[in-house]
Amino acid sequence: MMSKIGASIIRGLEQAIAFADGTGDPSSYVVHIPPEIDVRAIRSRLGMTQQQFAVSWPKTMRMKWHQPGKQHARY
User: Fold this and answer.
1) Which pTM does this prediction carry?
2) Cβ–Cβ < 8 Å for 66, 72
3) Among 27, 28, 37, 52, which is disulfide-ready with 48 (CB 3.0 to 4.6 Å)?
4) Which residues contact 19 (CB under 8 A, 6 or more apart)?
């Protein structure tokens, strides 16, 4: 028998997967996107160089990061 905490973690992971692959019900979640993402501060906290940080993201994320017309994060 699984604990309530274990069941909650599994339910949350299932919801995250459904959101990520587009099969989730959009009325069942809210996505909060901050107005600005300070990538430099994140890198600094992680102790990573720009190169290290860049290669730590999946290729598809890196390609989307610099789409023309999109707001770019500060480095």
Assistant:
1) 0.41
2) yes
3) 52
4) 29, 31
Helical spans, DSSP H, in the chain: 4-21, 39-46, 50-55, 59-65
The per-residue DSSP string of 6-23 comes to: HHHHHHHHHHHHHHHHT-
**The two structure tokens encoding residue 10:** 């599994």
Tokens of 53: 């940080």
pLDDT in tens, 39-61: 889 899 999 998 898 888 776 66
Six-digit token string for 66: 């610099």
Nearest to 60 by CA among 20, 17, 16, 14: 20
As a whole number of angstroms, the distance between CA 30 and CA 38 comes to: 22
